[in-house]
Amino acid sequence: MAATVGLREEVPVRLDWATVAAQCAWAGEQTRSFLVVPAVRLLVLLSLAMTVMILLEKLFVAAVCYAAKAFGHRPESRYKWGPIAASACKTGGDDEEDGIVVVGSGSGSGAFPVVLVQIPMYNEREVYKVSIGAACALEWPSDRMVIQVLDDSTDPVVKELVKTECQRWKGKGVNIRYEVRGNRKGYKAGALKQGLMRDYVRECKFIAMFDADFQPESDFLLRTVPFLVHNPDIALVQTRWKFVNSDKCLLTRFQEMSLDYHFKFEQEAGSIVYSFFGFNGTAGVWRISAINDAGGWEDRTTVEDMDLAVRTALLGWKFVYVGAVKVGSELPSTFKAYRFQQHRWSCGPANLFKKMLLDILRKKKVSFWSKLHLLYDFFFVGKIAAHMVTFIYYCFAIPVSVFFPEIQIPLWGVVYVPTVITLCKALGSPSSFHLVILWVLFDNVMSLHRIKATITGLLDTRRVNEWVVTEKLGDANKTEPAMEGLDDVQVIDVELSTPLVPKLEKRRTRLWDKYNCSEIFVGTCIIICGCYDVLYAKKGYYIYLFIQGLAFLVIGFEYIGTRPPSIE
């Protein structure tokens, strides 16, 4: 026995590395052939299918909007509309102090319904004066309008400034109420819900909503409320956004291009064909009875506006979009603020889709076609597929396909269909057509964040209810001379004690906090794919891959948008 053990110790164990390498190569080839290639091919096929879905949706929307324009299908021709006792608007002691006409309570004001104007705020130091001043300048009998400022600010200085501004306008005879609550439960939805519980709101029939950076024209109510007065089946009148700082930088121009298409085509087509579209959360007028009928505001997602719109539509109420009425607003001009906004706008709809899927299917009050539109067109194509396919197809499947000669993507899927989709979306901003290529590259980069947010919403994971209010830099104040001179209150130049995004705190910045590492990583990978295509694959994708990879790197190193002020 001892001799056997000694023999084993003397004989060395030799490993045939050539055989091991051959076996590993064989295993890798089998994995590639039976797992990786089929998976990538499946991704390509699914992406092509979703791309065609998006193409058909864009063509349908464009056809509807151009047909409506050709045949003169304006909201005023589809629904009853007429001025509400126009003569009553100028009766009864108008107050023209500071150049603002405050319509008095003349003998004819009873013809006007009582309207509540809600302005939710959260640490809005830069824009609170503009929004409150614009709301107080609305032409409507003073005894038939209540302005409600819902201040959830956590900064005591901002809170005092907003309160002082409300008191100033109240001293001028404006019926304005300053409301605060003890906590921020439910965020914006919670504030709006609690605002409707006030006793004085019982007299109101309609409610106009404006975010803190929105500046409605003085005739806003005169042009929107008549739709609700003359058409008892309409629950919502949505107006279009315009942007006071769209020329500030490329980031704001790109946002303007995306939102112009959304309003001019998507909202318009939804209003014409289905009398339904997603409420944009601001610059709209609701029938309060419709809100109550739908169960009021819900805070289960970060898109409380869309949640309310879907629940209201399922009860048979109609929506109308009035694109001729435009309300000024401010676009986020820093990439960080825009990224937070896009997370909320992408995560919320996906999460709402998950939570309302069964409710929509079970609803008997709406037709099969309305359900199909809601589930397929509105949610799946518009809120899920559009975000998923952009990243999976253009930023993963096409770059990775250069490593697999057996995967051939048809030319129509790489060039023709994406080009037509891009041209359809570019119709929203003809004056910015020269920026289309840069816009598409930027949109592809943003798809990285949108797909993460969409998956977060579908899976209901940790960041699903993350709510970061979009940071405003006060660009509206700098570009709207019409609002100058409205205040005679001295503003103390202080910093927020609890800023929403800690931009003024001086601290050591780590490398991964200073730059957007995920964009840098994806951009580097795409450029590597482009290099491989040039050297080996010869598929001709390298031009696109290099440009797209460079776009990821540019945004990864924060060379887009403006930079927030910092402490020296």
Automatic annotation (TrEMBL):
Top EC class for this record: transferase
Compartments it resides in: Golgi apparatus membrane
Reactions listed under catalytic activity: GDP-mannose + (glucomannan)n = GDP + (glucomannan)n+1
Glycosyltransferase 2-like domain mapped to chain residues: 207-410
GO biological process, one term: cell wall organization
An MF annotation (GO) of this entry: mannan synthase activity
Topological category with respect to the lipid bilayer: Multi-pass membrane protein
Record's GO cellular component terms: Golgi apparatus; Golgi membrane
Pfam families in the record: Glyco_trans_2_3
Its EC number(s): 2.4.1.32
Keywords: Cell wall biogenesis/degradation, Glycosyltransferase, Golgi apparatus, Membrane, Transferase, Transmembrane, Transmembrane helix
Chain ranges passing through the membrane: 42-68, 374-404, 416-442, 515-535, 541-560
InterPro entries, A to Z: Glyco_trans_2-like, Nucleotide-diphossugar_trans
CDD domains to which the protein is assigned, alphabetical: CESA_CaSu_A2
Family: Belongs to the glycosyltransferase 2 family. Plant cellulose synthase-like A subfamily.
UniProt protein name: glucomannan 4-beta-mannosyltransferase
